[in-house]
Amino acid sequence: FRVDKFNVVSLFSGCGGLDLGFELAGLSAVIGEEAAMEAFKDKELFNRVRHQSVFHTIYTNDLFKEANQTYKLNFPEHVVQHERDIKKVANFPLCNIMLGGFPCPGFSEAGPRLVDDKRNFLYLHFIRALLQTQPEFFIAENVKGMMTLGQGEVLSQIIEDFSSTGYKVTPYLVNARDFGVPQYRERVFLIGVHKDKIIKKHNFKYPEPNPIFGEGIGLKPYVTLKDAIGDLENNPGPYFKGSYSTIYMSRNRKKQWDDQSFTIQASGRQAPMHPSGDGMEKIEKNKWGFVGEFNRRLSVKEISRIQTFPDWYEFM
Predict the structure, then answer these.
(1) How do residues 18-59 score in pLDDT, each as one tens digit?
(2) Co-location of 181 and 233 in the same domain
(3) Which domain holds residue 293?
(4) Are 128 and 98 in contact (CB under 8 A)?
(5) Has this prediction a pTM greater than 0.90?
(6) Could you report the per-residue pLDDT of 249-262, keeping only the tens digit for each?
(7) Residues designated catalytic
(8) The domain that contains 71 carries what CATH number?
(9) 144-170 burial code (b ≥16 CB/10 A, e <16)
(10) Sign of CA dihedral 312, 313, 315, 316
(11) CA dihedral 41, 214, 187, 6 (to 10 degrees)
């Protein structure tokens, strides 16, 4: 814990994507966005300056062994990592900010939408951590489907539960492509601001996130697949080569070079198709087929780029 930094605790931290982005934003606040983004491209340079970020991660927790190993490869040694069931973590470290993308299998529109899936209630342990430590802010990220499950009642209950711990909670639905990510990815961010420590004391209101990229006046052009992975076309590295399921072939899985990727899912088998070659064609309802010869899934490295990880980020 450092008194000169905003100390961060990360729950359901995975391989560290949310934490890395947060750290980069904190570095941009100190040395400027252009300098921070330039440093971010090179591991050695980034590691020399990353300590200047206003955000200082002190603790993470995730059950997924390989994700934790990946995190360890890419983050400073001072971060305490737990590979534990969050239900069994008795005490959480004091912090200023708490982050977490709590599990969402029953919220997702991509699978069975089960209101009573036990994993849907793991957010209650995020709330338990907030009750214990009372940080000034928290950020909880989840899928868009959470907003419509149970005709919106599920989201209302989750917001009410988070609010009961002493926070003003606001949900924001954002699309990653509006903020420079070459991917159509809609996610809900619950932003919690402590009522007593921040709102009453500083009369603070969290600013509405406004798109930076798009097709309107004053917006930067969207980042395309060509921008992100065009240089990897002939040297993509490993990619999943297994068969295609009936569900996979039930819709178009191929975007064009000048577009953004479909949402990246947590499975090599579900990776979108690479944009080269001809597109897919609709054969009949819920059945599509490949056209031409060049048809393969996006590679690990291409997907990493689309998720905006730097090339030096090492995956276990």
Answers:
(1) 999 999 999 999 999 999 999 999 999 999 999 999 999 999
(2) no
(3) 225-306
(4) no
(5) yes
(6) 999 999 999 999 99
(7) 104
(8) 3.40.50.150
(9) bbbbebeeeebbeebbeebbebebbbe
(10) positive
(11) 50
